[in-house]
Amino acid sequence: MKDRTKNSCDYQQTLLPIDEALSLLEEKAIPVSDIEEVELKNALGRILAEDLSSRINVPPADNSAMDGYAVNASDLSPDSEKKLKVSQRICAGQTGVALETGSAARIFTGAPIPENANAVVMQENCEATDDDVIIRSKVSSGANIRKAGEDIRENTIILKAGQKLRAQDLGLAASVGFAKIPVMRRLKVAVFFTGDELRDPGEELSAGQIYNSNRYTMHGLLVDMGCDVIDIGNVQDTLEATTAAMQKAAEVSDLVMTSGGVSVGEEDHIRKALEHLGTLDMWRINVKPGKPLAFGQLHPLSKNDPSVSIPFLGLPGNPVSVFVTFCIFARPYILKMQGASNTKPNSFKVASGFDLTVEEKRNEYVRARIEYNENGKSFLSIYPNQGSGVLTSASWANGLALIPAETLVKHEDMIEFIPFTELSVG
After folding, report:
1. Where would I find the beta strands (DSSP E) of 18-154?
2. Do residue 179 and residue 44 come from a single domain?
3. Is residue 339 predicted with pLDDT exceeding 90?
4. Which of 315, 338, 361 is where one domain is finished?
5. Which H, E and C letters describe 364-382, residue by residue?
6. Inter-residue contact 74 to 135 (CB < 8 Å)
7. Most buried in the list 79, 184, 256, 328, measured by CB within 10 Å?
8. pLDDT score, position 263
9. CATH number at residue 399
10. Beta strands in 174-315 (DSSP E)
11. What is the C-alpha separation between 9 and 113, in angstroms, rounded?
12. Cα separations (Å) of 177 from 172, 181, 354?
């Protein structure tokens, strides 16, 4: 990768390819090292800090896969019905006694298989009488029995460090007896927003003012990722105020993020403040929306140590650009900082239901959604207005479709699609 220091004129001339930008972010991401133990019910969405190994077999003993009768297959006739004495009744949570030769045990789903029994006949193939049962079907040894350790063997790893824990993962940990598990501590992300025109919902708007939607988009995205958000609020459009807010944010967080002020206008102070307080490692990316995306390192003054740095991500100011660049660039970077082992979202190809007759010079993430025709075949629709200020497009969509640079799209062309469910925003 080329060396792009803060003094490099390459920032003014070259748009960084998407893959190169993602690689740079991955290389620079340093995971948090602190581990905390939390109750299992509070671990949803957290990153597992250590491998979890089972202390038991699951199931702990051979048990019945259904309601029926536990038998020894050798007691049954291969060609005709067989009447057996019902010698015992075993419910889930109970333990029976050894099965008498020539008898059957009434058994229920999940109940342990008694000694000497080696099969279960489902109750639909049996006819119960007063003290007997007539077996009307053949059964082989092992039929309808869940073997001990069939799901999980004792001492095997059930969950690996770096996994983002889902509901089913919590259930798996519970199934082997974990009440608490080790997770990486939550990432502290400080955010602030530049723009004298910004007001918060509930305030009155004067001429030229707008509501700060980016504050709530970013807050929601960060909370959805399990971050602790430190909101410093709106910052005046001056270099001094921007520098002060950036320094304050670096003192209290693991990562500083902003939206706006990263372009080349006279009132865009983020890049200058970043270069004053630290280093600028990345600025412009070959992507639409969201070309101006600043990444670098801040040096908190309180640490009095230039080797200590806090990463900084400056997202663009347009609402859709914030959303898209967060999903594509900030999300994998934050996951890596959280200690996640998998940071790449899954994508798949979907047939285009639209035409694009004008080539874009940049790779474009368009807001799209999967729909279905009258035959049930899926296709991609895109929002008619793909402007970077049209946040309605992101709310309408259920994913992002990638249109490579200098590419025309026709109906039925296969387009790469990333559903929002893969980005934890759907």
Report:
1. 35-39, 52-53, 63-64, 68-71, 82-90, 103-107, 119-122, 126-128, 132-135, 145-146
2. yes
3. yes
4. 338
5. EEEEEEEEECCCCCEEEEE
6. no
7. 256
8. 67
9. 2.40.340.10
10. 180-184, 188-194, 198-199, 210-211, 228-235, 255-259, 278-284, 287-288, 292-298, 310-315
11. 75
12. 9, 11, 52
